[in-house]
Amino acid sequence: MDCNVRPATESDVSFISEAEKSLFVDAWSKKGIAEEFTNEYAKLFIAEAGGAKVGYCIVIESFDEADIVRIGVMPEFRRNGFATSLLEYVFEDGDRKGIMFYNLEVRKSNSPARALYERCGFLLEGYRPGFYSSPKEDAAMYRYERTGN
Predict the structure, then answer these.
(1) 0.85 exceeded by the pTM?
(2) Alpha-carbon separation of residue 116 from 9, 86, 102, 149 (angstroms)
(3) pLDDT of 30-41, one tens digit each?
(4) DSSP 87-108
């Protein structure tokens, strides 16, 4: 299934909010997501396939660095390359702005996500003990450096 990634608009807030609730125990509120559209450093992206919204990514940019603070693909659409497409789009968008470094944190136990990030070139930098709650868990911290952009 082909994937199209595009910048999110305020009309995507409901989808992102519903996705958050189904994907994360620490889901962002609809209001919090909407507020990101007023944050000049925040960039939100939507992945679509077959006419459906299948995933999203929220990135906070600062100078030559960006934090991928949220990325999610709806469970019924996983393992189709949509998360990879989202990351590739984020990197291409960042290339145009001179972003060289990307950081993200993920639950230590989230092996599928960690494998994805490592396939995409992220390197494990270390662990942040007890970062997550519900349940309490360490965060694996990853960093990716763009070269040749």
Answers:
(1) yes
(2) 26, 12, 14, 21
(3) 999 999 999 999
(4) HHHHHHHHHHHT--EEEEEEET
